[in-house]
Amino acid sequence: GLPTEQIIHELPDDERVCPVCEGELHACGHAVLRRELEIIPARVRAVEHVQTVYSCRECEQKTMNSDDDSDVPSVPMVKAPVPVPLMPGSGIASASLIAFILCNKYLLALPLSRQEQEFKRLGINISKQTMANWMIYSSSHWLVLIYNLLKDVLVTRDILHSDDTSLQVIKENGRK
Q1: Rounded to the nearest 10 degrees, how much is the dihedral formed by the CA atoms of 55, 58, 60, 66?
Q2: Model confidence at 72, in pLDDT bands (50, 70, 90)?
Q3: Closest CA relative to residue 28, chosen from 43, 16, 45
Q4: pTM score, whole prediction
Q5: What mean pLDDT, rounded, does the chain reach?
Q6: 103-137 burial, b for 16+ CB within 10 Å, e for fewer?
Q7: Which of 68-77, 106-115, 125-134 has the lowest mean pLDDT?
Q8: Which residues touch 38 (CB under 8 Å, ≥6 apart)?
Q9: Positive or negative CA dihedral for 79, 83, 87, 93?
């Protein structure tokens, strides 16, 4: 079910000559010899949100042609609406970037420090502290809704089971 690209290997025109009678050879069949999987690494692109500003040509002309500034209204400026950023103060945080980081961290267990290194290899500087702040913001603004819904359902149950096994993630001196 994957998209497939076929690479058809053919003889150059000058080599399509019969080795017996030197007549012209024609294609009479194809055989798929192998199917390779090609991995295309993550593609990152910048999306710039550009706001268009509009003004009125008639008002501009009235302002330019007027000798007296007192009775001429100013030229109105109207700006196109722009969607608010996903996180206030974070210009580069898009929904797809946050989802990518969340999936890497919680689905693939890829620590933020390794994600920071991978972003650096792509030429993007995002610190693990910034990503951690994004995780906190995401959980407190969006994921808390899912958490609350799950909690509301779970507390109605007669029996619950959880695995509270502790696990040492980072070995620190003086900590078990």
Answers
A1: -160
A2: low
A3: 16
A4: 0.66
A5: 88
A6: ebbeeeeeebeebbeebeeeeeebeeebbeebbeb
A7: 68-77
A8: none
A9: negative
